[in-house]
Amino acid sequence: MEKKKLAIITLGCQMNKSDSEWLAGTLTEEYEYTEDKTEADFLVVNTCAVRDKAEHKFFSLLGTLRPLKAANKNLVIGVAGCMAQEHGEMIVQREPLVDIVFGTRALDKAHILLRKFEETGRPQVDTSYGSEYEDFPVRRESALSAWVPIMRGCGNHCSYCIVPSTRGPEQSRPISNLLNEVSALIAQGYREITLLGQNVNSYGVGLGGGVDFPGLLRQMNPIAVDARIRFVTSHPKDLSDSLIGAMTELESVCPYLHLPIQSGSDKILELMKRGYTADRYFDRVDKLRERIPDLSLTSDVIVGFPGESDEDFEATFRAVERANYDNIFLFKYSPRPNTPAENLPGRIPAKLAQERFDRVMTLQKEITAKRLAGWIGRDVEVLVDGPSKRDTEKMCGRTPQNIVVNFTSGEDFTGRLVRVKITKSGQFSLHGDILR
Ligand code: 5AD
Ligand code: SF4
After folding, report:
1. Is 403 near ligand 2, meaning CB less than 6 Å away?
2. Best mutation site among 16, 17, 50, 157 for ligand 1, i.e. most ligand atoms within 8 A of its Cβ?
3. Domain identity same for 20 and 96
4. What whole-number distance in Å separates Cα of residue 244 and Cα of residue 340?
5. Structural domain contains residue 223
6. Which residues contact 276 (CB under 8 A, 6 or more apart)?
C-alpha cells in the first residue's frame, strides 16, 4: 500500500527543528515525508511562542493553508510546538481549519491523535507532559550535521520568557542514550553534532550518576572521531571553569560559544532574573578569550525591557561593544502571557525601543564586519556543506567557529574537511581559495 504523505513547516528555534525531525521519524511507518505542502495528507505546523511576532506569523501562515484544505478535503492539519502547548484547545476553537493540536511533550502521540480524529471526525488536543522520546528513527534533514537534544524543557525562570511554561520542567536525557546516538551518527558519516538544550550547562541535574555537561563532552570526545561538536545554549550563570577547561582540551569541541547576555545593566539583569551581573559575565568572557584565542562568541540581546532607562541602555550598548561578538540575535522586548515581566511597570514606547534596536544593530554590523575582515590572509579548516547557493562555481562550508566560507575548489568536496586560504570578507561570510 502506498504511504500517505507528511509535510512539516517549522517555525522558531533549533530545538523546534530537531523536534520536527523527530516527529517525522515517529511517523515513518505510515507517512513518507514530502517538501511539497500541496501533496501532503498530514500537514504539521511546528510553532514558536517566544515573541508575539512569532505568534502572528503562525496565524498568518494558517491563512495561507486554507486553499490547501479546500483543494484536498482529506488533508489533516496539525499544530505542534510552543503555541500548541500555550493555547491548546483555544486553537481548534478559534481555527476550524486545525484538526489536531499536540504540545511540546506529546509529539509521540501524533499517530494516536490522528487515529482518534479519523474515527470521530472531531478535533483532538493533547498538551499533556510525561512521554519520553527516545529510540525513534529520527528523519534528519542533513546527512552531515545532526541536532542531538541532550535535555528537554527549561529549569530557569527568566522573567520575560515563556519557554519554561511551553516546554515544561528541565529533564536531561540519560548519557548512555546520547553516547549511543552520537556513535550511530558518526558511523553513518555525520561530521557535525550540535547538542541542544535551553541551558546545556545544567545537563545532568536530576539524572544521578554524577555526570555534568563537561563530563558529557569528555565522554563524547573520543566517540566523535573526525567530527565537530557544538552546543547551544549556554547560560552565563552556570558557565563553569570546568567547561572552559573541556572546551580548551577536547579536540572535537569547536571554539564556538553562544552565551546570551540579554542586557548590560545590572538593574535590568536583576529584573530579568538572570542570576548574574555584567561583571560576572565579563569575568567569564575574559577567561574564555584568554584560554581560547580564536573563540567565536555570539549572544542574544533584548532592548526595551520594562524600566530600561537611557543609562541602562547605554550599559547594554557598551557591553556589546566590549564583548566584541562575532554576531548577536537582537530582540525588542515582547510581553508574553503568564510571565512575571508581563506586569512590570515602565513599559518602553515602541519608537524608543526601535531606536535602541537600530543603534545596537548598526554597532554589531560594524563589529561583525571587522571581525570577519580579521580572517583575511589566514588559512582555515572548512567542513564543506556543498555547492554555494549564490555561486554554483564555488563550494560553501563553515569553519570551526561556524563562519560561512565560500571558496573556489574545482572539485566537489561535499562532506569533507579542507583547508582554505581566506582572501576576502563580506558582511556575513568569508571568501577564499582551497589549498592543496
Ligand atoms: N521578548 C524578547 N525577546 C525574548 N527572548 C525570549 N523571550 C523574549 C521576550 N519575551 C529572546 C531571548 C532569548 C532568545 C531565544 O529569545 O534573548 O535568549
Ligand atoms: Fe524555540 Fe522558544 Fe520558540 Fe519554543 S518559544 S520554539 S523553545 S524559541
Report:
1. no
2. 50
3. yes
4. 32
5. yes
6. 236, 237, 269
The answer to whether residues 342 and 305 belong to one domain is yes
* Predicted confidence (pLDDT) per residue in 296-307, tens digit: 999 999 999 999
The CATH number covering residue 199 comes to 3.30.750.210
Q: Find the domain containing 24 and state its range.
A: 4-126
The mean per-residue pLDDT over the stretch 224-235 comes to 96
Distance 373 CA to ligand 2 centre (A): 33
Instruction: Answer whether residue 134 is part of any domain.
Output: no
Asked whether residue 366 falls in the same domain as residue 310, the answer is yes
Does residue 12 sit in the same domain as residue 94?
yes
DSSP single-letter state for residue 187: H
- What's 194's DSSP letter? E
Distance from residue 255's CA to the centre of ligand 1 (Å): 24
Atom 2 of ligand 1, residue of closest alpha carbon: 333
Task: State which of 126, 152, 167 marks the end of a domain.
Answer: 126
Q: Tell me, using a 6 A CB cutoff, whether residue 166 lines ligand 2.
A: yes
Same domain, 11 and 41: yes
Q: Residue 55 CA: which ligand is closest?
A: 2
Q: Tell me the Cα Rg of the chain.
A: 22
Is residue 260 in contact with ligand 1, taking CB distance under 6 Å? Answer: yes
List residues bridging with 398 in a β-sheet. 383, 404
C-alpha 146/C-alpha 181 separation (Å) is 10
Nearest ligand for residue 82 CA:
2
Among candidates 400, 273, 395, which has minimal Cα distance to 339? 273
Please report which confidence band the pLDDT of residue 390 belongs to, taking 50, 70 and 90 as the band edges.
confident
Q: pTM, whole model, 2 decimals?
A: 0.96
- Residue 410's domain is classified under what CATH number? 2.40.50.140
Residue 21's pLDDT band (cuts 50, 70, 90): very high
Among protein residues, the one whose CA lies closest to atom 13 of ligand 1: 300
* pLDDT tens per residue, range 249-261: 999 999 999 999 9
Q: How confident is the model at residue 210 (pLDDT cuts 50, 70, 90)?
A: confident
CATH number at residue 84: 3.40.50.12160
Q: State the distance from the centre of ligand 1 to the C-alpha of 114, rounded, in angstroms.
A: 33
Residue 262 DSSP one-character state: B
| Same domain membership, residue 150 and residue 119 | no
Q: Report how far ligand 1's centroid is from the alpha carbon of 161 (Å).
A: 6
